[in-house]
Amino acid sequence: MALRQEQHLKQTQRLSPLQMQVIKLIELNSIELEDKIKQELEENPALDEAIEKDEIDDAIKNEEDEYAEPLSEEEIVKGDYMSEEEMPDFRLSSGGGTSFEQFKTDFAFSGDYSLHQSLLDQINLRKLSDTEKKIAEYIIGNLDENGYLESSLRSISDDLIFQLNIDTTPERIKKVLKEIQDLEPAGVGARNLQECLLLQLRKKKQKDTIRNAIYILEELFDEFTKKHYDKIKRQLNVDYDDLRDAIDAIISLNPKPGNTWGDSMEMAMANITPDFIVEIDGQEITMWLNNRNIPPLRVNRGFSEMMKGYSENKESMSRDNKQALLFMKQKVDSARWFIDAIKQRQNTLQLTMEAIIDLQYDFFITGDESTLKPMILKDVAEKTGFDISTISRVSNSKYVQTHAGIFPLKFFFSEAMQTDSGEDISSREVKIILKEKIENENPLKPLTDEEATKMLNERGYVIARRTVAKYREQLGIPVARLRKKL
User: Fold this and answer.
1) Cβ(33)–Cβ(398) under 8 Å?
2) Is residue 230 domain-shared with residue 300, that is, in the same domain?
3) pTM of the model as a whole
């Protein structure tokens, strides 16, 4: 078969190095960006902080004179593309953002004294053999953030053989687990909710109320979870006052004992560093990015001059010097891209937040949730000219400080609903009404989803029962049967 050459014309899209940097930096909040900049400053000798004002001015002038123009926002979305596989390794070092849910989990266990460390310190005071202590350490290491042990004793036995070369039985592991379950906080090391609650009750003084509570959990746990109080009362043969005391004793327990060490997480959430600051002066709104800890950057002068000296003697330089020149060029390019990516990120965040303020102007003026208008990612994308995926990245894990408090950007997004008059309203307005109605319900006869739907329909909101159920679940409110109280 004869060989022949053919030409084919096709269009492909590839992300440029700068675009990759911008995409990854947009996902970061201000704290993560600060850490990322510190990391780049440590890893890239060509990147430097511009500390003095004249250095900042020189850095800006050098960028304008020597470097290519930064990409426009339109080019960020539509511009020159390069696949990630084709990018040199040093250009991929920026890494992605971390979701706030993951940040909470990491923060809760990054303190000086975590739940796991506390349990290890306590278990070391117990009279256990060296093997039993290793088993205990393994079990503690497998507890989840709530203090529960999800692995079965059989699977732990198998893991100990392969990982620690400890051949033991589930019965011996159970004995060690009992030691862990005797530690503080009470309930830690439980394998399910029932066991967790019983561990806590058995540490209390054994009076009638506690004995009744233990009997309910041991013999009538299914009835308790379904709130079949009349059946429990008949089984216990007690009056309503004694039943109420036993139920109250159970309800007062902590179903997630590991959260005792979650105070640091709550403090982190209560002391969030906002990415945007919004201030109100009459009807005027002023907004700016919180760049307090974000240093201005420049390309290191000494590094650039050294590279320039190598370049002038390029023809006579040795192979090692050529490799050094290539390395320096890569680092300088990387520094330039990083600086431009930071600028593009800041501009993208600024324009996105301005669009959100414009669309939710009434809320930022009044701070009243009921004034929030229906708004989806597409609305902000159309107003800014950015892609929807860009708006999604900006709104993820970002917070804004207002006179009404600190809010995640996702707070301002909600789907549209209609009243019977055809007026568009935010689903958040319906959720507020639903929440208030449930908070004021009769605890002996909680509001069902059907009753809530009827109530909302009577107020003029066109809404189906399944939508009411969805909103109730989003608000973290259980079904009526589980809200019933004595």
Assistant:
1) no
2) no
3) 0.51
